[in-house]
Amino acid sequence: MISLSNQLYQSLFVYYLESSEGWKWEENSIVHHEKLIKLQEYGKSYPKEIKQINGVRFCCSQAFFVGKGNDGTRVYVGLGKDGYERAVKRLPRDFCVCFAEQEKKVLNETNITQSNNVVRYWFLDDESDKDWLFLILDLCEETLKEFVDRSSLDDLTTNAPDIIQQVLKGLADLHREPNPILHRDLKPSNILRDVHGNWLLADFGISRILTAGSSTHQSEQRGTDDWRAVESSHPLNDTTDGGKVCYKTKSDIQVAGIVAFYIVTKGEHPFGKNPDRLRNLLHGNPVGLSMLKDSVLKDLLSWMLSHDPKDRPSAKEALKHPYLQPAKQQFEMLCKVGNQPEIKTHDIKSDVVRKFNSDRKNWTFLVRPDVLKYLSTDPLKGKTFHYKSSWTDCLRLIRNINEHWHDRPRPRPKIFYLVGDPQEFFLNLFPNLPVKVHKTIRSCDWKERVELKEYFI
């Protein structure tokens, strides 16, 4: 009797959860909160209007609409039996069968399922409706386009490093060997923010999975105007390949650079305004970069927007740029470079040494004379070093101070406390030195050195 009663109770409980009166809801979304309340109320009043797919309830009504895409695609809020909020992407069957199947295939790839910066896929229903396909995804709060539109330029400047970093992390996951995935339609409306502030890459309907060892996919032009890389914007050879264009992992990188510029300028394009935009892109002329005042950011975007794909960084390399690295990492890089044998010996035969010292600006003029004298003195050995005006000497000083700063004997003079933390002192004194060093090292084989690799690759 007890067992029968338990079974009856469980059956009634399941019925309650599955009925319109018993909607379970793990409340998370802020932006779509009201729509989810309305969805539950509507389900109680009009249960026959609610559609259920793979345990997710939704209604394709304007009241529950949250976004749209190309070819009649619409997105609605949904609520799973487990109580978790979902997005239901409705696609017209006539136009989108191939796109939906491709998106399902791509979103099930290990590169994506293990990523924290790609939207999570749950289910594709291609059987329940003769006119529509339904793709179930995690519900997000807004697109990057919406975020940029509603944010001030100051807020965008503050948030840009975090957003750009997360976009690049998503691309690094997509591009991971042995079977890299090309997004091919990266743009602000395909980058989503979830309720926890994570930025996620989305919309993989035209993405392609490269075979092992392949670096390029050729096809008819896909994607969206103004959001294509240069090699994806014009045919390779009109007469021999049917007007096909190229897509590479580095194509996604150039478009990510366009997206990054869009963020930091609140909606501008690095290749200018139409009708000149395409011409500027094809000629490698990012005219918009001149409006950037932040030289560190400008260096990163110049690199990502390089005309030749070979000159662009990979996503992993771009993530190592000083603009996206914490101060600790930047300072460690300066110290490690300052400890290289060519820097120690002022090797004039070294191309790197010559590049560093081609900048004739005298760094010693930026340091108070009494501070420089103190920094140049080794109190333990009673020896004073003479640091010259070359930037290699500057790097050597930074390395030496960092290595021996806390070895200085007590009592310590006031000037010791004036300098304080060497990392903070030198990065404030020479704010552009990390990017100067990074730009020089990333273009030569020093970046492969064991002690430097972690800062560049």
Automatic annotation (TrEMBL):
SUPFAM superfamilies: Protein kinase-like (PK-like). One of its GO terms (biological process) is IRE1-mediated unfolded protein response. GO terms for cellular component: IRE1-TRAF2-ASK1 complex. It holds the Pfam family Ribonuc_2-5A. InterPro entries: IRE1/2-like, KEN_dom, KEN_sf, Kinase-like_dom_sf, Prot_kinase_dom. One of its GO terms (molecular function) is ATP binding. It comes from the Eukaryota. Transmembrane segments: none annotated. Keywords: Kinase, Transferase. PANTHER family: IRE1-RELATED, PTHR13954:SF28. This is Serine threonine- kinase ppk4-like isoform X2.
